[in-house]
């Protein structure tokens, strides 16, 4: 997912938490280097701003106070440009937080970023992390350059609890059950699915998530990784099968609110809001956990998730298949280091990558720990705990594929191609062939 997430936050409480430490921030125009090794100062670059920035600062305030390390956070709305200019000018930051592994590995190729194999205890981290997150930051030589600090669970289907229960519907556990539920809702004259793709210049990512969901479910994690790393062509049969599985939900007349023709022009963030009406316009929406934070769902819904919503995992196509009974598509934010010989940088990286980081953010909402060992009582509601369990209990879990692909494809031809196909401008074979042809040569 390429959309910067907005966490719900209680501003007054955050200010109180942040001011207990000695955190500081600078604007994204450049920042300053942290100085010599072990000077008790660490600079972090990132894309968190607004409510997310305050939540992040609240989450590290206690560590800064107890460790004596003075952390400067530099937010930027153009993180890629900033970090490239810093690397080119040999003005390396201490730590940078990336929204995708593809961006992280692109920067690693420029030099200066430190492989974490010698800095952190990676085997210990792997034993507590949800699989598929840290592995996405490995380069072709098998070196790890990033650790997850936040997880997004994408394989979530949302519905309005009171309306869903009043209609007598039950949560499906397999693909056949999902098809049956879709047809049952449709038979009552109501549209089953809420689906919108419009996201400004990022329009298309909603459909790429759906394709990734089904490549994982049909091909399993090994085939998924081969596709993402271009070891098999983009127009491979498994990708076409995945697209057809999505089309089975999105394209039939009466399946989606507004019809297929409205999908690409319907804003993704508010596409599901009509399911909360007393007479729902649609009942089901597949979207990541972030949709319940920020300004997407109505505020009266986000403040009462346990009583207002029901969630379930997007079912497998075949529980006995290569992806198992609980396949999960993930996203996340990742931390990378540029000062491997600084003990303070090491200490901050150890904290950010631990299951102790994020408790304050979790209590505010809009944040999931990538660790299976994180104390789930920190989450503000049972809905969030249940979504975290989807990842913890996964039989196979993978990082968002378009986030791992070269930018020319993942946030370029893949987005554009899905938009052209869903809107009916181009057929599926043409789109898949064009995306394959767009893959950069090494």
TrEMBL record:
SUPFAM superfamilies: Periplasmic binding protein-like II. It comes from the Bacteria. This is Alpha-glucoside transport system substrate-binding protein. It comes from Lentzea flaviverrucosa.
